[in-house]
Specification:
28% of the residues lie in helices and 17% in strands. The longest helix is centred in the middle third of the chain and has 18 residues.
Length: 229
């Protein structure tokens, strides 16, 4: 058996969210039609790969993204709670650039420490659970490849940790577009490289691509930049 194992950490596709709610861990948010197309595109992209394990966050948008990939390889879809979206206090609300959220006194107490961050799950806790999920996927697919479907913020945080960057950051500069693949290559139990690809890039609206600024009139919560998604 090869001592090289590849784990693809995938962000889910576009979600049907016409009201621009920061949906976080809320149930009932499903892929849009475009999101389903993104999932199918990535499944096609990975069809020839040696994938022996597919696992997803328990949230619907992640499960729906992972399903075509598991089906293409004749695999049962596993679920790992550790791949879930980061928790935050603004879940269920609109909260983004230009919507007045920063001027509301009731929000100020949650915005005092961007380094932790004070509005939600600490970055360090995200690293711990995401590294555990990655290692579990590596063990399940040892010598082959695995796909783990998760969410923007936890993916970016664990990548930042592996690449030895600070965990606090400008959300607009995350390289983690919808339906993108952040790929960790292990030699034995050690990560030796990290790669990034966007198999569905042509399907992603320009203002939602990695590093793009929110479109005029779009909130960060609505386009998934501020707190994950």
């Amino acid at each position: 058996m090869s001592d090289i194992t590849v784990v693809h950490l995938m962000r889910h596709g576009e979600v049907a969210n016409p009201d621009g709610i920061l949906y976080g861990r809320l149930p009932g948010y499903h892929l849009s039609e475009l999101g389903r197309q993104m999932a199918e595109r990535v499944a096609e992209h990975l069809a020839s790969r040696d994938i022996t394990h597919v696992v997803s966050s328990p949230l619907e948008r992640a499960q729906e993204t992972a399903t075509p990939i598991a089906k293409a390889h004749g695999l049962d879809l596993a679920t790992d709670e550790r791949l879930i979206e980061a928790d935050n206090v603004f879940q269920g609300k609109t909260f983004g650039v230009g919507d007045g959220a920063l001027r509301r006194p009731e929000n100020w107490k949650h915005l005092v420490n961007p380094f932790k961050p004070s509005w939600g799950e600490p970055y360090v806790e995200q690293v711990v659970r995401m590294m555990a999920a990655l290692n579990a996927a590596k063990d399940a697919a040892r010598g082959h490849e695995a796909v783990c479907v998760s969410h923007q913020l936890p993916i970016w945080i664990v990548r930042s940790f592996v690449e030895r960057r600070r965990l606090w950051h400008d959300p607009r500069k995350r390289q983690c577009t919808l339906a993108s693949l952040t790929t960790f290559t292990y030699q034995g139990d050690k990560i030796v490289s990290v790669g990034y690809t966007e198999p569905a890039r042509d399907l992603v609206p320009p203002h939602l691509r990695a590093g793009a600024k929110p479109a005029k009139g779009k909130s960060a919560a609505g386009n998934g930049k501020a707190f994950g998604a």
